[in-house]
Write a structure and sequence with these properties.
Layout: H1 12-15, H2 17-32, H3 39-57, H4 59-64, H5 66-96, H6 98-108, H7 114-129, H8 132-153, H9 158-171, H10 179-188, H11 192-221
């Protein structure tokens, strides 16, 4: 990608406006107005308004190559959709397997501090399914209430449990069978053997260290 010549590119202050609109719209509806709408519905609205703003701001560029834009969008969204569907299906098969049940039972039976065992359990499930959201969904649906009760009994803030498991799920969800990893390889055309060592450091190494640091700050200094 050559960005040395930006003559045909929009100025930064205009290019960032649709992104800011999305963020502000979601924040206002959820934090200020406290809308009862579902989060996904709010995000869809924000994306729709951002797309409309893009068309308004850059209509000359959009309508100049509108057929090519639709062709590229259709091609890329189908690739992402099918890749994600395949990998998600694989995660579903893993989740339904007997081996996954053994791993899950082992992780959930750890007799240690609830924060640490919650992180291990979430990380193991996220690793097996290749998805942070799947790991969190399974952990929270199966043992979320029990861990919330344990943390409350031991005086551990539930905010700390929330932050810890988020870190843990994001730390081990980017192994080669992860949907996001496969999609990235598909779009970039980069071979796994040439790129995965870098993805491992940034997506697994740093996030795992972040989880450890979060726990350490709480246990040592009580920082939530």
């Amino acid at each position: 990608m050559d960005v040395s010549n930006r003559a045909d590119q929009p100025p930064f202050r205009l290019a960032i406006l649709p992104i800011l609109l999305e963020i502000v719209y979601i924040f206002v509806l959820q934090q200020v107005i406290k809308s009862e709408w579902d989060t996904n519905f709010i995000i869809i609205q924000a994306l729709t308004f951002a797309c409309i703003l893009i068309v308004i701001l850059f209509h000359k560029k959009v309508f100049k190559n509108i057929r090519q834009l639709f062709d590229d969008a259709a091609d890329k969204c189908l690739v992402a959709l099918m890749t994600t569907a395949f990998v998600t299906g694989f995660g579903g098969v893993v989740q339904a397997s007997h081996g996954f049940e053994i791993i899950q039972n082992w992780a959930f039976s750890l007799d240690i501090n609830p924060l640490i065992s919650a992180c291990i359990a979430t990380g193991v499930v996220a690793c097996a399914t290749g998805s942070c959201s799947s790991g969190l969904a399974i952990f929270l649906s199966v043992l979320g209430p029990q861990y919330a009760a344990l943390c409350t009994q031991q005086g551990i803030p539930l905010e700390m449990l929330h932050r810890s498991v988020i870190w843990a799920g994001a730390g081990l969800d980017s192994f080669p069978h992860s949907g996001s990893v496969v999609t990235a390889w598909t779009y970039t055309g980069i071979k796994p053997k040439d790129s995965y060592k870098y993805m491992f450091v940034t997506n697994i190494g740093f996030t795992t260290l972040g989880c450890i640091l979060t726990l350490a700050l709480y246990f040592l200094f009580g920082i939530v």
